Amino acid sequence: MRLLLIKDFLDLIFPENCLLCSRALVETENCLCSICKGSLPITSHYLRSEDNDLTSKVQGLIEIGRAMAFLKFSKDGKSQKLLHLLKYRNHPELGEALGKWFGDVIKSQDFFKEWDLIVPVPLHKMKKRRRGYNQSEEFAKGLSQSLNIPYRNLIRRKIFTETQTKKSRLQRLENVDQVFEIQEDTNLLYQNVLLVDDVMTTGATLCSCANVLLANGAKNVDLATIAAGGRI
């Protein structure tokens, strides 16, 4: 009771604000207010998860079952601002909140019951040390909590790569080729894996990680990201 009173007092003096619009959040809101959540460009990829813009993007690069993004990415749009807050403004809690939200959305589809494991795309240890967290892992945590499916950091980034931002599709593919490896003593035999990242552009990073998982025994790899370009 005393702790609850202290929390109420602190919330009164230092209210939590929406990360997008700075409105004070009510008790039932987390990171984003209801108004901003309602204005986000949520995609319908999960309704056609085996045949959409994202599956077409990685066709020929990897054998996958499904690909989904929670939000449509648009330059200077709200999804880009969210990713910027998550990656560069020290808001790991935002990744977890988005993961929980997306998990609640895809619960409407029975295919989520097929997944045995959620695996985040890794950051190089130097970059993770500098940032303090891996935004994709925070997204995986939220999905794990919502879907009640364990998540594990099974992939290691063995080479520090340059930023992908201004590279072409071919350059991105070359930039991540042979970059990832599986953690030691990992057994993925017959496992259906959901591989998650913060954003999909060309799909090069996700494909490289998925190929590592498949090469080490995974039965199937599906993809999910916070945001991606293309049609909703």
From TrEMBL:
Gene3D superfamilies: 3.40.50.2020. PANTHER family: DNA UTILIZATION PROTEIN YHGH (PTHR47505). InterPro entries: ComF/GntX_DNA_util-trans, DZR_2, PRTase-like, PRTase_dom. Residues 9-44 form the Double zinc ribbon domain. SUPFAM superfamilies: PRTase-like. It comes from Algoriphagus faecimaris. This is ComF family protein. It comes from the Bacteria. Belongs to the ComF/GntX family. Pfam families: DZR_2, Pribosyltran. Residues 135-229 form the Phosphoribosyltransferase domain.
